[in-house]
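Model it.
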Amino acid sequence: ILEPGDIAWVHDYHLSLLPKIVDDFEKKTYGRSMTKKVFLLHIPFPTSHIFRELECGEEILKGMLHADVVGFHSFDHARHFLAATKRILGLNHENMIGGLIGIEIGRKTVIVTMHNVSVEPFQLDGKFEKRRQHL
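Modeled.
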């Protein structure tokens, strides 16, 4: 259902191969990637030592690296991912303008980000209070 120019937002570990699957399909169909892919992992990423023990660990890393952006909830999770890509795939990361972290793979730079995806109760309380005042 993706069309050229769409952004696919892929969530969690059970879909870690999806960015590569979509990318492979697009390259076969259109000759190049046609969509942007964002992969967000909602669970901690294991250390490279633990990840290396997975039979399909390298395949999972490569799948995730077909996304344009790979996001984690904390710096520790991102750090484990960066260490795994270095130790298992031999890829380096670099600091980019604006405080971003990038992993160069071929001619592509994958952005690695940290996002605390949650609801801030104090902000909601303020919004609810304003709404109650208008009712």
